[in-house]
Amino acid sequence: QSTVQSYLEGVGAGLEQLRSAAQDVQSVCQDLEAARWALLDSADGFQGLQQMRELMAEHVQLASVVQVLPQLFSVQEVFSHTLQLLRGQQLLEAHAELMMMEHLRDDILSQLHLRGLSSAQATVLSYFGGLQELNESLAKQLWDIVGSSLQLVREDPVLLVTAVRIIEREEKIDDSLLLEATFLPPGRPKGWRQKFYHVLQETITGAHFHAAHMDTEGPGLARHLTALQKVIVSELCVVKDLMVQCVPAHYNILSLCTATYHQALSSHLQDILRENLDKQALFLLLEWALRVYHSPEMMGHPDLLPEVDVSALGPLMSPELVDQTERKYVVKVKASMLEWMQRTLEVEFKEWFREEEPETDYQGFFQSALPVIVMQMLNENIQVASSITDSLQQKVYNMALEELEAFLGRLREALVHRGKEHQKDRAVPKHYISYLLAMLNNNLALGSSVSSLHPDTARREVPASLRAALDRMQKKACQLLLEELLLDLQPLCLQLPSRKWLSGSQLASSMCEVIDKYAKDFSRAREPVCTVLLAESELLVTSQYLRALMQKKMVCKSEEERGQLCDRLLQDATQLRELFCGLGLEQSQQSLEAVFALRELICLKDPALLSLEVLGFVTKYPDISDEHVSTLLDLRGDVSKDMRHMVLEMMAQNPQVLPESYRPIFSTILVPAPELPFCLRKGKCA
């Protein structure tokens, strides 16, 4: 009961509080309503307050301007004093006053900015219009000092130090304003440190690398590069030893100057390479950029190390530019080489018309100066290129081999022309054969010297095309010599076959005399050419001898004549064979065996055995044709048509294939066409 009674009392107290609160709320609502009507009644009065607020703002602006008027009025006087200081090169004092005025201006503008008084800023700026002129005047003097810094550090480093101090003051002001980032005054940031770098770089570049009319010929360019080398080393030493003490460490002034010289040099070399340079100038540039620049004579100079290091700056000439320049150089060298080789060729053939034989070496072999001149020219150019880069050496080496191959081609053409001219008058030149032999020895000398051109012994392989050119040259000279031999043999070969020859002429002896004379000349050629000439001469003699037999000049009328023919063939072939053996040509290398085999064919007494004899002959000499065999059968004079048909049929049934090592004999011999039968007898015209 007491609990319930206590609970009821609490509820009653709560209801009483709610009733009191409701009465308070009603009272507040009535007061708010009264205030609302009061405000509505006072609206016109508030508009008057707005006008008063605007008037108050204008008053504040005027008060702010009035506060700084004494300072603004003194600005022009400070400007004049600062200008006088600048003219007197009192830079630190002038800069102090300039900073003071800029600080005053910036402080006023900042206050106006914070108060939102933008209309007053223009008025304030009009008073500080001379600041721009002072800044420009000071900057001009600073950049003049920076532009002369390399000279000033040796004569009056104080000026440079003063300039750097001013620049650093301005950098600190720029940094502080940028950090605040609330208000940036006019003309900020000035960035004078970057301007310092730029002016220094422009000074270096303009002083040495803007030569408008530079001599790009070899000697002139060499002088220019030598001057650059000296001045760059000298100025970098000044920077390293003196200038670094005048500027803060974070300027990295030595690295900056080194990079500037490097980049300016790189651009300068590119500008020079745009000109039409000769080979000497191109070589100088390559040597200077790839060898001299990094040597102890320049960027690796002991006075610059170890502080100066250009290895991190990249190459002075890019690999592409180096390759392009090397190719230009090779083209120029090729043109020069072509001119020299052509001149050498002309001089060589003028020598042919001398009254004297060509010079000989200590062994008595004919020779001329041609291979020495040509190889010396090629070798010198390759050696010069090897002092630059391996790539240039390889380019010049490849070009040299190509030019040598082309030279051999022109030499061969000149030989052909000289041979044609000689055929018109064999007395000119007087020592034609001797000079041909000298040319063969020269060709051997060239061939043996080519492999020594490349400095690297592992890369001395002679290209197949050059070996072929040497071979063609040798063959042409040998051919011209054999043509001379042929011209002297042909009148003798016209005497056979004939009955006068059968009766015992001195034809073989006369041929041996001619051959021996030429063999003595051939001995003035070096091996293996001498042996080649002997072998080719023997083949030529055999071919001409067989050709003469197959001209259908004679037909044996009796067995006795066939016997005489066989004896004469045996005597001639034996005499010729002994001659060539005596000259050093082994019997196994001779083709005169064909004459002996042909003799056996003629000497055969039983015509019925001709098929077997001819088959053996054809097997031994597979290049013989039906016409050749038919002509030989005619020479016998006793072969019937049936027998001839049987022999030719047997040849048709046994076709022959030429072995690879076989030296053709009969394929070069043309057989006269047979006379066509005519129904009327030959008689005198009426």
Automatic annotation (TrEMBL):
- InterPro entries linked: EXOC3/Sec6, EXOC3/Sec6_C
Assigned keywords, A-Z: Cytoplasmic vesicle, Exocytosis
Mention any one GO cellular component term assigned to this protein in its UniProt record.
exocyst
Please, which domain of life does this record's source organism belong to?
Eukaryota
Q: Which GO biological-process labels does this protein carry?
A: exocyst localization; exocytosis
Span of the signal peptide:
none
Give a GO molecular function annotation for the protein: SNARE binding
Localization (cell): Cytoplasmic vesicle, Secretory vesicle
**Job description of the protein:** As part of the exocyst, may play a role in regulated exocytosis of insulin granules.
Which PANTHER family does this chain map to? EXOCYST COMPLEX COMPONENT 3-LIKE PROTEIN (PTHR21292:SF12), EXOCYST COMPLEX COMPONENT SEC6-RELATED (PTHR21292)
Task: Describe, as the record does, how this protein assembles with itself and its partners.
Answer: Interacts with EXOC2, EXOC4 and EXOC5; may be part of the exocyst.
Family per similarity comment: Belongs to the SEC6 family.
Q: What is this protein called?
A: Exocyst complex component 3-like protein
Q: From which lineage does this chain's organism come?
A: Eukaryota, Metazoa, Chordata, Craniata, Vertebrata
Query: Which gene carries the instructions for this protein?
Result: Exoc3l1
